[in-house]
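Quick check before the chapter quiz. The format below is the same one you will see on the exam, so make sure you can read both the input and the output lines.
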Amino acid sequence: MKCPHCGQNLAAGSCPSCSSEVFEESLFCHRCGSKLEKPKAKPKTVEGEELDFSKRILCSDGTCIGVVNEQGVCKVCGKPYTGGPA
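Here is the expected output.
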């Protein structure tokens, strides 16, 4: 489905009430006015496992936004983990 303003192709679905094509992000059908339910988002996975953000270890450098990888270094700045924020 194309955006009526810019012409870009956007994801589309169909209205469960009238089967009209609607934008995926729409809250209501533009044809019949029915409220559209958004599909429940599936948890993101890595290699078949759910991501658990509570288990991540943040970089020790207080100015970096990275997380520590399996080798014990930050994925963004490369500094080794020292056990807490600097």
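If your answer matched, good. The CA atoms of residues 28 and 35 lie 4 Å apart.
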